Amino acid sequence: MRLPGHVRVGVIALVLATAMAIPTLPSAASAPSEPVDPATDPAARPPAGPRSENIPTYDAVLTVRTDGVLHVHETITYDFGDSRGYGIVRTVPYRIKNRLYGIGGVRASSSTGASAKVRTAKFLHELRISVGDEGKPVGGLQAYVLDYDVTGALTPYRGRDELAWDALGTGWGVPIDDAAVRVVSPVPLAGADCAAGRPGDTGRCGATRGRRHSVEFTQSGLQPHEGMMIRIALPEGIIRVPPPRYAPAHFRGSVAGSWALIAGLLLAALVWLCRRVLAGRGLVLMGGTFLLAAGVVAVSWDLADDILRGGLWEASVGDAAMIGVAAAVVGAALIWAARPWSAQGLQ
Questions:
Q1: Looking at residues 322-329, what average pLDDT do you find?
Q2: What is the pLDDT of residues 239-277, one digit of tens each?
Q3: Would you say 232 and 195 are in contact if contact means Cβ atoms under 8 Å apart?
């Protein structure tokens, strides 16, 4: 049936109005949006946190010379992170237990323009090598090169000579990302080993590449105060190895010295108990003064030779020092007891 013209116009208008009123639906071909991956979209990554200090790379070359001297060449890249500093401090032990090592010929440079001014000072059993200038702070990634010689590092044994040395040291308070240590010898190596970690750890180093006259050890992910202990065996008699040097033990007192110190403390306690009887006596004051002076002289005499020869941290305490302490304690007690009663608060 054919609709009249005015009816057809009305139907068409109704259809158009209905189509405009219906909201547009998504097409079947359009897929829902994927979540943004921060790993692939830098704009979606969260802001980076503060960067802490670390050592990205640490390369050490240990060269054994025919005269028995160990030459150390270290290249250290140090990242100061978001902070600024005045340089680095490398600590090298000059005394391990009672064994002494000589450290000299210290030189430094920097390929990144940082100050390479060198200062050395002994503290406890370590030589502190400070590289930098307090008046010229630096930041970011810096590179430092250290050179120094170590004497007394080789040990002669029957059938071999041996080098045992912590190539990085355990004084670094920041992590070391990648470390490499190469040992170069003028003679073929008879053996090589490396342990990574804190002193006493037995973990093997990450990788080893050996040649006839050299060997290289690498290690990644060292934590603060972890090092790399290198052990190298050399044929006996080819390299001139001076005998190791040893310092006296810090405590060399015998049983006699210990008993003398105990007796001095007990006698000082007895003087305190008898202070009323001894108060105001000039002879007691003279005796106390003499014992105090004699004790100071004995302690000074016992320590002076070690301090003058090797410094304050090589001082050793023997029987003379212990007897001197005992005499000084008794003398000080007698001087105190010889004061008048009023000065002691006994009235």
A1: 87
A2: 888 889 887 766 666 788 788 888 888 988 988 888 888
A3: no
| Pairwise CA distance, residues 291 & 285, whole Å | 10
Tokens of 346: 């006994």
H/E segment holding residue 8:
helix 5-21
SS (H, E, C) 223-290: CCCCEEEEEEEEECCCCCCCCCEECCCCECCCHHHHHHHHHHHHHHHHHHHCHHHHCCCHHHHHHHHH
In the chain, the amino acid numbered 108 is A
SS3 for 57? strand
> Containing H/E element for 298?
helix 282-310
The total number of residues written for the chain in this structure: 347
3-class SS of residue 331 = helix
Please state, rounded to an integer, the average pLDDT across all residues of the chain. 82
> Distance (Å, rounded) from C-alpha 146 to C-alpha 127?
14
**Residue carrying structure tokens 């500093």:** 85
Phi/psi-derived region of residue 345, left when phi > 0, alpha when psi is between -120 and 50, beta in every other case: left
Whole-angstrom distance, CA of residue 68 vs CA of residue 62: 12
Q: Letter for the amino acid at 184?
A: V
Q: Are 138 and 87 in contact (CB under 8 A)?
A: yes
Burial (0-12, 13-18, 19+ Cβ within 10 Å), 277:
exposed
CB 70 within 8 A of CB 186: no
C-alpha distances out from residue 208 to 160, 178, 216, 230, 234, Å: 22, 14, 6, 12, 18
**Residue 30: per-residue pLDDT:** 42
What's the confidence (pLDDT) of residue 224? 94
